[in-house]
Amino acid sequence: MTITVDELSELMKKAAGVTVAPADLQDRADSGFDVLGVDSLGLLGIVGELENRHGVPMPVDAERCKTPRQFLDLVNSAMPAGA
Q1: pLDDT digits (tens, 9 = 90+) for 2-42
Q2: How many angstroms separate the Cα of 9 from the Cα of each of 17, 46?
């Protein structure tokens, strides 16, 4: 399973209350989460929602990622196939 920009955009809205269109998120994937309006608690909420949704623990460093690209790269590299 791969976490997509679309799913991350949805999670940002649900868990952090920040609306960023998937296309904008893709274009700004190297912008800091803080620039996009997601603080550390919001990112922690995103991690928790992903764990609940997929039933697998996220990498320990997931909540420390600074950018959406860094987050997606880390999480997707750690996701088991078919999760």
Answers
A1: 899 999 999 999 999 999 999 999 999 999 999 999 999 99
A2: 10, 10
- Please tell me the distance from the alpha carbon of residue 55 to that of residue 83, in angstroms, as a whole number: 8
- 46 backbone φψ class: left, alpha, beta (φ>0; ψ -120 to 50): alpha
N-terminal to C-terminal alpha carbon distance within the chain: 5
| pTM, full prediction | 0.91
Dist CA 67 CA 77 (whole Å): 15
Write the DSSP string, 1-54. ----HHHHHHHHHHHH-----HHHHHHTTTS-HHHHT--HHHHHHHHHHHHHHH
State how far the Cα of 27 lies from the Cα of 30, in Å rounded to an integer: 8
